[in-house]
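Friendly challenge for the regulars: who can give me the structure tokens for this chain first? No prize, just bragging rights.
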Amino acid sequence: MLLVPVIGLVLYLALHSAVLGLANLQALRVENQLKQWQKGRVPERLEAFEPALRAANRALAMQSGNPHHYTLKARVLEWRGYRSGDQAEEQYRHALALHRRAADLRPLWPDTWAEMAVLKLRLGEFDADLDYYLAQADRLGPYTAVVHKAVVQAGFAKLQRDPFVQPPLLETHILRGMSDRRTRGAIARITKEHRQQIMVCRWLQLAEQPAPYKSFCEQKS
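First reply, four minutes later:
Bragging rights claimed.
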């Protein structure tokens, strides 16, 4: 009598494992594409983003409760927005909605909050939501690479809008980002892009452990 329920359970577990494996395979395809784009190999034509987008959609169809799949699709849309010209805003808003869904499913993951903050910057929206995303990112991942970069990008963007107001968290993540080998180069690049070397070097020189940043401040602008 127990044989039928046992067989049913075994079949269910086998099917669940198969679906999980297929979803992960689709996610892996998206991740591989994202790695190529991060290396500068971003397609010129919008049609070239479709395979990655289809793979992300298939992963979501098989595992709609997996926050990582929402994050992957959001990243694909953000890259497509980068190439979309006048249609970029639509892509960024869609990506932001997907990140919000991922945050609902995995609220303690700092990377998601940081990526939402960056999308708000791309949309030019300096509002309470941006401040909330940055605060959440800092609270949940104070020493996370993507958080350092998001806070610094947002801080410099705010300074451009109002140079007399010191953005919260900016100095903290400048120091942390410059002392972190994963982000030192990116923070230096962002600093130069915004022409904030003098201010940043002043903070670095006053830091308790200035040694890791010495080479940046010795460089000629």
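DSSP finds eleven helices and no strands in the chain. The radius of gyration is 21 Å. Your move, everyone else.
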